[in-house]
Design a protein that fits this description.
This protein is 0% helix and 24% strand. Strand 1 and strand 2 form a beta hairpin.
Length: 45
């Protein structure tokens, strides 16, 4: 299953974390997209 780091809204900060432009907050890179609170996962192009 894809993770946050596979989403087009994810911008990496370091190896473990990044920023989600939809949430407006920092997220862990390896969180399963099924756990996305906004359910807005879109794969990177």
């Amino acid at each position: 299953m894809p993770t946050c780091k596979d989403c087009k809204f994810y911008t990496p900060v370091d190896v473990r974390t990044g920023n989600c432009s939809n949430l407006g907050s920092e997220v862990l890179a390896d969180i399963d997209t099924g756990m996305c609170p906004l359910r807005t996962f879109q794969p990177k192009d």
